Amino acid sequence: MSTGGFKNRVFSGAQPSGNMHLGNYLGAFRNWVLLQEEYECLYCVVDMHAITQWQDPADLAASTREAAAAYIASGVDPKVSILYNQSQVAAHAELAWIFNCVARLGWLNRMTQFKDKAGKNSEQVSTGLFVYPNLMAADILLYKATHVPVGEDQKQHLELTRDIAQKFNHDFECDIFPDVQPIIQGEGTRIMSLRDGLKKMSKSDPSHYSRINLNDDTDTLMKKIRKAKTDAELLPATAKELAGRPEAQNLVSIFAALAGQTSDQVCTSFEGKGFGDFKKALTEIIVDKVAPITEEMLKLQADPSYIDEILRFGAERARAIAEPILNEVKQVVGYIR
Ligand code: TYM
Question: Does 144 participate in catalysis according to the annotation?
């Protein structure tokens, strides 16, 4: 199995299960923007994944539009890239079912995100949450995507996607699916909570102070940085010396990611300074980079029908790629058509 012979194509997505945040932007959205010049890109709002955990229907629609607005405000051009919401392309669900029959129970049992999300409550979560990674494999392979830009937390899911592709090709003696390459790059691939440097910044964290939402106003944003957990030490000369100081490490990475520097360079600039000074500079750079995105998101969200039109247009383009590939898969599986 190889990417050789397959057209370079990018697929990625985010769940509309809450507010889009700085982790999504630094780990994913801004990398998506860089890829659109070079590759054919599909950027999906994965509303089918979102309902693996309860979503109030009115909130789901609003969050779907918010995610689309965040993609566009971050720089995704919906005329160039294909931007749509997953549930408008039924082929995702059809291929996911086939993959439910390819993936092995043991593979899914090893998924750490399922364990984290289910917690002690694993008998009560939806079966959708358990087969979530199969739907994710379907999202990607439905388009024979070769590259998937994501944050570090998605690495294990992408390994599963590769296993599913390989097993499908092997079982059905074909070479339909490419070997998918993850793109996990930059200083922002794992942004942590502002309240606990050992926990990922996440939409589902009950503490609002744990994350910077892309639609936070400047006052809120400043307050969140002011309240961000730190330690009593000064900033060291090198990033290596931040070991064992997860909150400090996280704030330095955020600064580095936004400034287009390495954490080492940030340490060199702030060596010997305390968090009072550092937080001032950090607030400035966050406001500088995030406020224009927030402003653009608000403008876009003020016109929901415009966003819906973009999503419908994207879904049409996505279906045009997906349907012939799904037909090829159905033929190989032995379905009468
Ligand atoms: P989701 O919605 O949790 O996150 C969307 C993207 O943001 C990245 N991300 C982060 N990056 C750095 N630091 C963080 N704290 C952080 N939090 C989130 C994620 O890695 C992701 O790239 N399962 C996926 C959605 C999905 C998908 C796909 C992605 C469904 N199908 C196919 C790629 C390809 C998810 O829940 O992402």
Answer: no
Q: Cα separations (Å) of 79 from 43, 245, 280, 312?
A: 12, 44, 38, 12
pLDDT band at 1 (very low <50, low <70, confident <90, very high): very low
- The reply to whether ligand 1 has any atom less than 6 angstroms from the CB of 189 is yes
Ligand 1 pocket test: which of 46, 51, 144 has the largest number of ligand atoms within 8 Å of its C-beta?
Answer: 46
Specify the pTM: 0.97
Residue pair 277/225 in contact by the 8 Å Cβ criterion: no
68 and 131 share a domain?
A: yes
Same domain, 322 and 224: no
Question: What pLDDT is stored for residue 3 in this prediction?
Answer: 59
117 in active site: yes
The answer on 184 and 116 residing in a single domain is yes
Instruction: Identify the pLDDT of residue 4.
Output: 67
Clarify whether residues 118 and 222 are in a common domain.
Answer: no
Q: Is the CB of 27 under 6 A from ligand 1?
A: yes
CATH number at residue 311: 3.40.50.620
Q: Does the beta carbon of 215 lie inside 6 Å of ligand 1?
A: no
Query: For the segment 161-210, what is each residue's pLDDT rounded down to a tens digit?
Result: 999 999 999 999 999 999 999 999 999 999 999 999 999 999 999 999 99
Contact 168, 95 (CB under 8 A): no
Compute CA distances 173 → 92, 176, 325, 332, whole Å: 22, 9, 16, 9
Q: Would the pLDDT of 92 be above 70?
A: yes
DSSP letters of 197-246?
Answer: TTSB--TT-S-GGG--BTT--HHHHHHHHHHS---SSPP-SSGGGGTT-H
> Which candidate in 144, 200, 224, 279 is catalytic?
200
Is 115 marked active-site?
Answer: no
Domain with residue 231: its CATH number is 1.10.240.10
Same domain, 146 and 222: no
User: In terms of domains, do 165 and 99 share one?
Assistant: yes
